[in-house]
Amino acid sequence: MAVLTLGCKLNQSDSEALARRLAGEGVRVVDRPVRGAQAFVINTCSVTHVADRKARHLVRLARRLSPDAEIVLTGCYAETAPADIAGVIGADAVLANAEKPQIAERLLSRLEDRGDPYAGCPTPVRPTGPSGNPLRTRAFIKIQEGCDELCAFCIVPYTRGREQSVPIADVVSQVQEREADGVLEVVLTGTQLGNYGRDLGWPREEQGPRRLLAELLQRTSLPRIRTSSLQAQDIGTHLLALWSDPRLCPHFHIPLQSGSDAVLGPMRRRYSADEYRRAVSLIRKHLPAAAITTDVIAGFPGETDADFEATLRLCEESSFADMHCFPYSRRPHTGADRMDGHLPPQTRRERLERLLTLQKRSSKAHRQGRLGDTADVLWEEQTEGRWQGLTGDYVRVYASSDSDLTNRLTAARLERLEGEGVYGVPAPP
């Protein structure tokens, strides 16, 4: 069976949970399109029209690879797609995000009817851990679902619903299970990590993320814990104080979206450009070596040339380790969809290209600044004779080694730039 994932780390967490459930029942699970798989689950994104197109492409690809396979389309595109999309693109079922818990049982029933769930499916992409579940060096743990913020450009509140936090005891238990499987890093995911605990009645001054991280540091021994994303307004001295524990990865993903208050206001973001600057400065003060990455949107409705130049300036000032840049994509059910001032596609493309040029320069500068350092690298896999893994500050490292580095955390000297990462020399085992 193939479980294919598009989009955010929430989807990656959902797909991982499904794969663990199926593997626990003896099903062979892979995470790429393969010929002969008896079933495909395609966990989709709908943040842009491009993501929608990728979802449709994967369904059609799966049907070509395995004409008789059971194909289930789920995720955010399943929430926004037309009612007849399954028949049009060849899926057998379209299940909303809330129906994801039903997928395992549906597929297990289908596979039981068809016979051996191993038939026709190649060896799993990843080895298994001590429990028999697929071994992943990095596990995605969903701590929070949904969003109450209603940013004007974002469809997530429509596709994911209201905020719901996973109780601390459940999060700790999941992390401990991953530890037992040999996982060395967990990534805490959610739509609004900074609002963790708000729906449980915790006052904001308790800082839900801080409370959760403190519990995980105390009750688990995992060598790496990473947060997927925080907002500028979430960054404070009490939270950053936890990073004195080296188990917390020195990497902060802080979405910017725009560097102009004239755009941030209509976007319904809860910070100003100067408040964003203060958050970046606070991280730099407490953790000078930390990497800060971000998201930026080009061409939001009403964005002027001056607004866009302000965004470029703030991005340059912030010296981001990396930037995820997107052209504004008109989405139904969002506030921005009803706004005046939508910009021509050509303007959005031109602004995106300027952001991407800055992104390449900024990313290269961050990686160059790491050359000559010795960093701990969590090695994930070997592809075409080359090992690859990640540093704590999210730099991709490539290496040549005759040793088996799978799921090992080792020191490596970072020697030169290579592609979008760096080339490193692992310390002798």
| Rg from Cα | 22 Å
* Largest sheet: number of strands, sense, barrel closure: 5 strands, mixed, barrel
Q: What is the name of the CATH architecture of the largest domain?
A: 2-Layer Sandwich
Overall average pLDDT: 90
Q: CA-to-CA gap between the ends?
A: 36 Å
CATH class of the largest domain: Alpha Beta
- The rough form would be described as globular
CATH topology of the largest domain: Transcription Regulator spoIIAA
E-strand count? 17
| Strands ordered across the widest β-sheet | 13-14-15-17-16
Question: What is the strand content?
Answer: 15-25%
Order of helices and strands: EHEHEHHEHEEHEHEHEHEHHEHEHEEEEE
Structural class: alpha/beta
Task: List the domain count as a whole number.
Answer: 4
Description:
α12 links the parallel β11 and β12. About 5% of the residues have low confidence. This protein has 4 domains: about 110 residues, Rossmann fold (3-Layer(aba) Sandwich), CATH 3.40.50.2300; about 110 residues, Transcription Regulator spoIIAA, CATH 3.30.750.210; about 120 residues, 2-Layer Sandwich (Transcription Regulator spoIIAA), CATH 3.30.750.200; about 55 residues, Beta Barrel (OB fold (Dihydrolipoamide Acetyltransferase, E2P)), CATH 2.40.50. It starts with a strand and ends with a strand. α7 runs parallel beside α8 and α12 runs parallel beside α13. Helices cover about 35% and strands about 20% of the residues. It is built from 13 helices and 17 strands. A 5-stranded mixed β-barrel has the order 13-14-15-17-16. It has a 4-stranded parallel β-sheet with strand order 1-2-3-4, with helices on both faces. It is of the alpha/beta class and about 425 residues long.
